[in-house]
């Protein structure tokens, strides 16, 4: 979508307005939720085909907090996802260690505008995630920088959990999630 669109939902008791710049998403107010998808899909008859596609993108079970299947998260790199809020989405990354998965904002504390994963997976050396720009090294367990210009700082953790073979967003700051890569 080239220009942001203002979406307002009013359920009679509560009103929520969001400025949307993504091609798809949802806005909720009270018990009402409006989901939208902007594009050139083949389903133009108003049937539920788009809803079924949205369920598939949420991992097939329709849960908006499901990010990806556990098997899709690499141990030697990262995978990107968007943590969704009504006001904007946040670019985040997942990393796997055995059956455990950790998540952080896709941003180096030294230079927040620098993503750790530019869309092809972040650099992982041993047990460290490495910033491609300045070489900062972050422990993959807790995200603490052990070497580099932001030594002692930590990546901004995003709460996730693994269940039923999937990775789910559990961070209360966000309403839902979707894989980006």
Quick structural summary:
By secondary structure, the protein is mainly beta. It has one helix and 15 strands, in the order E-E-E-E-H-E-E-E-E-E-E-E-E-E-E-E.
* CATH architectural name of the largest domain: 3-layer Sandwich
What share of residues is helical? under 10%
Mean pLDDT: 81
Kindly report the oligomeric state of this protein.
Answer: single chain
- Measured by DSSP, the beta-strand proportion falls in 35-45%
CATH topology of the largest domain: Rieske Iron-sulfur Protein
Radius of gyration computed on alpha carbons: 18 Å
The count of DSSP E runs of length 2 or more, i.e. the number of strands, is: 15
Give a quick account of the main beta sheet: strands, pairing sense, barrel closure: 4 strands, antiparallel
- Write the H/E string, N to C: EEEEHEEEEEEEEEEE
> For this structure, what is the CATH homologous superfamily of the largest domain?
Rieske [2Fe-2S] iron-sulphur domain
Structural class: mainly beta
Q: Residue ranges: pLDDT <50 for 5 or more in a row?
A: 40-60
The rough form would be described as globular
**Strand order in space, largest sheet:** 8-7-6-15
In total, the number of domains comes to: 2
CATH top level label of the largest domain = Mainly Beta
Question: N-to-C terminal Cα separation, in Å?
Answer: 18 Å
**Tally of DSSP helical segments:** 1
